[in-house]
Amino acid sequence: MAQVTEWQAKDIARILKAVPRLIDLPAKKMWLDYDADADVLYLSFAKPQRATNSELRDDGIIVHRRGKVVVGLTVQDASTR
To answer: Which residues contact 32 (CB under 8 A, 6 or more apart)?
Structure first.
């Protein structure tokens, strides 16, 4: 896994542009992992997720639940969304 060692101003600007959407999400804590080779974004809203059920939606997103609570999402083809 490559680490980011030097951020450019454009990288920080892109993150700041996303801030209003991020703080509006129902989850206040989340963990992100992106697999560039598979183009899959993993979002976890609980660590560990310990999902008891997963559902593949028609749009290619997998919703992971523990009971009725959403504990994570797997976003396929993430770079094109």
So the answer is: 41, 42, 43, 44
